[in-house]
Design goal:
Chain lengths: 293, 306
Amino acid sequence: MERLEILKTYKIFIGGQFPRTESGRYYTPLDKKGQPLANMCLSSRKDFRNAVVAARKAFGSWSERAAFNRGQILYRIAEMLEGRKAQFVEELVKQGSTKAKAKQEVELSTDRCVYYAGWCDKYQQIFSSVNPVASSHFNFSALEPMGVVGIIAPQTNGLIGLVSTILPAIAGGNTCVVLASENSPLCAITFAEVLATSDLPGGVVNILTGTEKELVDQFHSHMDVNAVVYSGGNAEHAKVIETGADCNVKRIFIYEQDFFKETAESPYYLTDLQELKTTWHPIEQIGGATGSY
Amino acid sequence: MNRNKTVKNIPDFKLSPPVDKVGVEERVARFQTRSIKNEAKIQGLKMVLNMIDLTTLEGKDTPGKVHQLCYKAQHLHDHYPELPTVAAVCVYPTMVAEAKKALGDSGIKVASVSTAFPSGQSTREIKLSDTRFAVENGADEIDMVISRGKFLAGEYDFVFDEIAAIKEVCGKARLKVILETGELASLDQVRRASDIAMYAGADFIKTSTGKIQPAATMQVTYTMLCAIRDFYRKTGVKVGMKPAGGISSSKLALHNLVMVRETLGNEWLNNEWFRFGASSLANDVLMQLVKQQTGHYQSTDYFSID
C-alpha cells in the first residue's frame, strides 16, 4: 500500500509555543503554478496583542543576559539552521525558488546568524563612547536595547529576509514580533521551530502569519511597541507606519534592499535598534590641572 | 447591615453538601464563553474598578508605600474622566492609621488583615488583640484568616468559635473571613469552610491570602458563591464574596462578574457584596478602558507603578 504523506500544520509562534490563531481563520497562499502551498494561520489583532505581551515579558531577562551568552545562543541558531538545510531548501523551492538559489539562501542565512552572533559582545565596545566635557564629570554614552520591536518581513526571500531583519534586533537585546511574508510564509514557521530548539528563551521572537493589510495598523498603534522595522516593500504601508507611529514616538526603520547582498549585514542594523544613554557621573578633578576626559 | 447573630439552627458541618467537581468545571467553562459587547464591557470594567480592594501586604511595606497606594486608590487614572474609585485599601494592622489618614473623607474604606495573617498560627488572645488594634485604629473592615490546621484536623467547633469571637471584637467593622482555599485541598472542604464561616458570622467570605497558590480559581469562587446562595435561601441573610489572589487580568475579572450575576443575581453586583482582592488588576483594567477609548493597545509605561 502506498504511504500517505504526513503534512505539517503550520501554526504561529508566540511566547515559545505554537498556538493556532485565536481567530480560527486561515488562508491558503498559492505557488507559482497556482497550487495551494499550505493552510496558514490568518493572524488577528488579538494574536498580535498576545505576541506583544509575550515579547514584553521576555524583554527583561533577555536584555539583561550577558552579551556573550546572547552570542552563544545566536550561534546555536546557526547550528540548528544548518541541520535543517534540506528542509529549508525544499520549502524555498516549493515557494518558487530554484534549487541553486534556495541552497544559496539557506547557507547565507546560516552564515548571517554566525555574523550577528559575533557582533553580540562587540557592538557595545565599538559604538559606546567616553565623551569630553568641560566640567568635572565622567561622561559616557552606552547603548541600550529599545524594547519590543515590530518587524514586517520582506515579501520576497522568505528566509534570508526574515533572518536579516530578526537577528540584529535580538542580538542587541531587543525582543520582537514578526509578521512573516504573506505569500511565502513556510520558512518563517520552520525557522520558528529552529528558534524553539536553540536555547532562545520563549517570547524573544514571536512570528505571526497573515496579511500585512490587516495588521499594519496594529504595528504602529500599539503603545507597547517601541520600534518598527518595515521591509514589506509597500510604499503606502510604509507611509501609514511612519505617520501613525507618533502615538508613542516609535522609532521607524524602512529597509528596502536585496538581502542577498553583503550590504544587508552590518552592525548599523543592530545599532539602529539601540538607544544611546548618556550618563554624567560627578567626579573630583582628576589627572592634575587639566580635565582628562 | 446584616448581623448573622439572628441565624439559628446551626447545622452539623460534617454534613455540608459534597461538591460535584466535574459539574463545577463544566459550569465554570461556560461562564467563560459569554460574549460581552463593547458597551457592556466598558460598564463592566468600571464596575470591576469600583469593586477592587487595592492591596499591599508585604513585609517591606512602609508608611510611604501605603500613602502612595492610597493616592492611587483615589486617582486611578486622572486622564480618564469620571472613573470610580476603588472600594477599599487593604493593609496590615500597623498601617491602618496611616491609610485612614491618607484616605480622609474620600469614602474609600480601610480594610485590615488580622489574626496573625497570613498563617493564622497564633493564640486566640493574640488574634483578638490583633483585631482590636486594627479596629481601634479605624479599620472599616477586618480580613481574618481561619485556623486551617484546626480545620483540617476536623476541629470545626474551634474554627467556628474563633470566627464568632473575632466577629464580636469587630464591632461595626465588617468581617471578611479568609478560607485560604489553596490549603484546603478539595472543593468539599471549601464548601464546608464557607458554611462554618457564614454561620459563625462572616459578612464576607474570601478565598485566599494571596500568599499561597493556587488562589482564587474560578472553581473555588463558584463553590463559595453556591454556598452563599444556599445560605441566603435558608436564612435570608446576605453574605458577600471576595476572590483574592491571581486575578490580574480584566478578562478574568469580567468572567467573575458573569459568574456572580448568574449564580447570585444582580443584587450582589456592587462593592457592598462583591470585591476583588488584587494589586495588579487595577492597571490592567485601566489599560483596557483606555484601549476602548483610544482604539490603541496600551503599555504599562504610561500607567503608575504600584
